[in-house]
TrEMBL record:
This is Kelch domain containing 4. SUPFAM superfamilies: Kelch motif. It comes from Gopherus evgoodei. Gene3D superfamilies: Kelch-type beta propeller.
Length: 250
């Protein structure tokens, strides 16, 4: 679900009962002025049925949908899961008219995952954090958890990984989030032209799925917090002074 102008747009999801399950790829809109639901019928070919995808709105009032998860039954009591890595644009075309367009982003894309979070940032870029990649077998499941960050540039239709950047009197110090180790709280060391000291450590969120990303009203600070009320942690990232995209020449 995502807020778009004076509407809440809902896409996909799933329903599971004791006997069966079903995944959806329909679109609904909830009008915040009239408090009424409307089923939308976009033209074009949209995403396959799924749950767990993430949605962000563009400055033009369109909606980008990325990723998701679905499963299908391959034999009795055996299901096969699918991690979706495709990207779609739900484009507004006048009043109450929408069009599906499939996007093919370039750049360094996030590895397949579910349970990640996405928020809109400044400069027409969205931010993706975390997630999990489950490896499923017939009688067990194992998961690889992530704590990395990716940017999606909407104008250039391009993915690229993020880095933390700190600037001080000694020059720029870069912190690569790709070095976070799954399942452990990462204490990552900043590198600079001078010898790193004990004070050059930053505590980042551990690898996890089902966290939340929220951008401030002015889009200058991003908040990363866990989805559980107990033991929740919070990381504040200032877009102006701390967080910059990796690869400024892109």
């Amino acid at each position: 679900m995502v807020a778009c102008k004076r509407q809440l747009i809902v896409f996909g999801g799933f329903h599971e009962s004791a006997r069966d399950y079903v995944y959806y790829n329909d679109v609904y809109a909830f009008n915040l002025d009239t408090f009424t639901w409307t089923k939308l019928s976009p033209s074009g070919t949209g995403p396959a049925p799924r749950s767990g995808c993430q949605m962000v709105t563009t400055p033009e009032g369109n909606i980008i949908i990325y990723g998701g998860y679905s499963k299908q039954r391959i034999k009795k009591d055996v299901d096969k899961g699918t991690l979706h890595t495709d990207t779609f644009l739900l484009k507004a075309d006048g009043v109450d008219k929408w069009i599906w367009n499939r996007l093919s982003p370039s750049g360094v894309k996030p590895t397949p995952r579910s349970g990640f979070s996405v928020a809109m940032g400044p400069n027409n870029r969205s931010l993706l954090f975390g997630g999990v990649h489950d490896k499923e077998e017939e009688e067990r499941i194992e998961g690889d958890f992530f704590s990395d960050i990716y940017f999606y540039d909407m104008g250039k239709n391009r993915w690229f990984p993020g880095q933390l950047k700190l600037t001080d009197e000694e020059g720029d110090r870069m912190l690569n989030l790709q070095t976070c180790r799954p399942r452990f709280l990462a204490l990552l060391q900043l590198f600079s032209r001078s010898k790193p000291g004990a004070d050059d450590l930053i505590q980042l969120p551990s690898s996890r799925p089902q966290c939340f990303l929220v951008c401030s009203e002015r889009g200058k600070t991003s908040h990363i917090t866990t989805g559980k009320a107990s033991g929740a942690s919070l990381l504040l990232i200032s877009w102006q002074t701390v967080f910059q995209p990796f690869g400024r020449a892109l």
